[in-house]
Amino acid sequence: MPAAAPPDAPGVRSTLPSLTGLRFVAAFIVLISHTGYLFFMGARPEDNYADYLFVVGSLGLTFFFVLSGFILTWVAREDDTRRLFWRRRLVKIFPNHLVTLAATVVLMIISGVAVTVENTLPSVFLLQSFFPMQEVIQGHGINSPAWSLTCELLFYLCFPLLLPLIRRIRDNRLWLWAGGFTLAVLAMPFVAQLLPDQPVMWWGGDMSWWQYWFVYHFPVTRMLEFVLGILMAQIVLRGRWIGLPLGWAALLAVAAYGVTTQLPDVFAWMSLSALPLALVIAAAATADVRGRRTGFGGRTMVWLGEISFALYIVHYLVLYYGPVRAVDPMHGMETWSFVEAVGDVALTIGISLVLAWLLYTFVERPAMRRWSRPAADTAVRSGQRPPGGPAPAPVPAAAPTPTPTPAPVPAEKPEPVQRKEPTLLQ
After folding, report:
1. What gap in Å lies between CA 187 and CA 206, rounded to an integer?
2. Which of 79, 152, 195, 276 has the highest CB neighbour count under 10 A?
């Protein structure tokens, strides 16, 4: 017998509030990584606390990439089309991105930061991670975290092509494929050794920019984590989940992070935690399906999870141009007292949360409601027209509208099972 029964009947998928809550945890980890890195780098440069915080941000990013593959597979509909899927995905990411990009350009001009073709134009079309140039991806004063949206855009373009192929994998070989992609992720730093060893990264060490870009920024490399998420979703949906509790999966992820911090150079940036985080996602999803409490599926955590994308895309602007003023070469953390630095970091986090709520409320959610599906599809969902049928013709005012006689309903006919709309819509 399989280790666990499939979570739902065919065509019916449960909501996954815990994964929505965990999205906020991942976004908040990235925020703490960026703010904490500057804090410890300026306050105590002789310690290596900054390295631990810098690497922990990569943990949150890996979680997002694996989660994308898992959730898109979980909510995939048989009646969906590539065009509709791509439309929803583009509407999901571009409004937030373009608004924050415009804000970035304005803030750069006000602060005297040079606006160039390199640090602006590739970002407009979310192509920056395909350019192995530090000025394009990590230029001074730009909204650097937006580079990951280049990876997400590639994931979205490839997903309708990947899912049918992965669905052909036999049930008893899913874990074998998951292990194979995990090994491929771990092999990327070794492949990176073939790339030029100059120029070196600005924070020192023996890692070159080319090696770092290939392992961490190159969208094709990060695609491996996305596919791992698709495979893990198939494992859960087909009843091949091993029943690992969420707590144990989380401990494995923490252990993987601890090992990663001790690895040298480019090896510290590989996604050693990809498989443990995939196990966390699968365990949380299974707990939600079975009605178990995880601590991440409450109303507050779900709301925070819903604004997590906005938080991720806006927090770096607050860090650069807010109280910390990281855009200044000699920002205050190098001279402030510990209490002053902590106060400004806390203020940065608070402002980021408020701006994320505003961005989600007035940009992301209205854009999704207005443009994520065609007007005809919206009419079908609201019951104004039948699926696949023409729009109802207007009835002349003078013509009486006949009252239809309802057809008899068999007493024993069960109610049709309605598809559950997922809490996590990516």
Report:
1. 19
2. 276
Main-chain phi, psi angles of 208, to 5 degrees: -90, 160
Q: What is the DSSP letter of 173?
A: G
Instruction: Kindly state the tokens that stand for 48.
Output: 């290596």
Cα gap 318→311, rounded to integer Å:
10
Q: Cβ distance 240 to 175 under 8 Å?
A: yes
Half-sphere exposure of 139 (CA within 13 A, CB side): 26
Structural tokens at position 185: 């992720």
**Which two three-digit tokens encode residue 186?**
């771990």
The 8-class DSSP code of residue 373 comes to: S
- pLDDT tens-digit readout, 340-369: 778 888 999 999 999 999 999 999 999 999
Contact assessment for residue 7 and residue 237, using Cβ atoms and an 8 Å cutoff: yes
pTM confidence score:
0.85
List the chain domain ranges. 17-381
Using one digit for the tens of pLDDT, what is the confidence trace for 197-232?
888 876 656 789 999 999 999 999 999 999 999 999
Distances from the Cα of 230 to the Cα of 74, 183, 220, angstroms: 9, 16, 16
Separation CA 265–CA 244 (nearest Å): 32
